[in-house]
Design a protein that fits this description.
The chain is α+β, with helices and mostly antiparallel strands and 181 residues long. It is 39% helix and 10% strand. It is built from seven helices and four strands; from the N terminus they run ααααβααβββα. It has a four-stranded mixed sheet, covered by helices on one side. It is elongated. 20% of the residues are buried.
Length: 181
């Protein structure tokens, strides 16, 4: 069975209108292809992530193939190719945190937030990510919630841990998720 091709809509095939802010970033870096990574960092700082239209504009203005720009953006883990969620929780699974129960904490947060660890889309409101080290090894286990470091989480005291998590993630963790409820 042959597929029928519909004619493109007027907007299809037409590049999106350039964003003047992205153009200024590219110009600030001399519109040099060798500045691609730095340009992508600045665009992400501006927009919070790297949407497809921004990647296309960077490619046009640096005179690079879109595949190369996307390849660089998708290779480096610091670049976000999806819009960030409103709230972000990062659990450290570096050696010290892992030994002090970081993996247990991560599993508990997965259940409580009803999220999969490292799912970039999260649940729309929250994302739950792992990090290799937050540089607070003496305070393990640690996590970061919306940019704030939480240290020395009392995994051996479930009630105290529950109180801390409820304060950190008020709406998401108001009550433990029960299977079948």
């Amino acid at each position: 069975m042959a597929a029928t091709l519909l004619p493109p809509s007027p907007a299809e095939g037409t590049p999106p209108a350039p964003d003047a802010r992205i153009s200024r970033i590219v110009r600030r870096h001399g519109a040099r292809p060798g500045e691609l990574i730095e340009v992508l960092h600045r665009v992400q700082e501006l927009l919070g992530w790297l949407p497809p239209q921004a990647l296309a504009q960077v490619a046009r203005e640096l005179q690079l193939p879109q595949a190369r720009v996307y390849g660089v953006a998708s290779f480096y883990h610091l670049f976000r190719l999806r819009a960030p969620t409103a709230h972000r929780c990062c659990v450290c699974l570096g050696t010290a945190c892992f030994v002090k129960g970081g993996a247990v904490l991560a599993a508990q947060l997965e259940r409580r937030l009803a999220l999969r660890l490292d799912d970039p889309a999260g649940n729309g409101a929250w994302s739950l990510e792992t990090v290799s080290c937050l540089g607070a090894c003496s305070q393990a286990p640690v996590l970061v919630v919306d940019g704030g470091l939480e240290a020395k989480l009392p995994l051996d005291q479930p009630e105290r841990l529950e109180q801390r998590l409820a304060g950190l993630l008020p709406e998401a963790l108001a009550a433990p998720t029960q299977a079948g409820n």
